[in-house]
Design goal:
- By secondary structure, this protein is an alpha+beta fold.
- The protein contains 2 helices and 5 strands.
- The chain has a 5-stranded antiparallel sheet with strand order 4-3-2-1-5.
């Protein structure tokens, strides 16, 4: 079965749908604490989601494995996030880590 150009524009790939849902999930978590494991350095961030810009999460980092990276705002590309957990009103809390 072949589709014309207009019909093809109506279809979204599974990856597009996944990406949009992930961005929406982070957008709905704005102002909440998040735990992130990244695929590359610096690997771990715990902080508050400040904003979403396209597919970038603006994160106010409170904890990382390197203290020099803490208490700063970081822009994290959503595709670099391997695992994450966003605190909600129901469910476990992300612990406040000290030293």
């Amino acid at each position: 079965m072949q589709f014309n150009a207009m019909e093809k524009e109506q279809f979204h790939s599974v990856n597009d749908i996944h990406d949009e849902a992930l961005v929406d999930h982070f957008r709905n978590g704005k102002g909440r604490r998040v735990f992130m494991l990244l695929q590359s350095y610096p690997f771990i961030f715990i902080g508050t989601i400040e904003d979403i810009s396209d597919d970038m999460v603006v994160l106010q980092v409170e904890t990382s494995q390197f203290p020099a990276l803490e208490n700063r705002q970081w822009h994290v590309h959503i595709h670099n996030i391997e695992v994450f957990y966003i605190e909600r009103s129901v469910g476990p809390r992300i612990p406040k880590l000290k030293d």
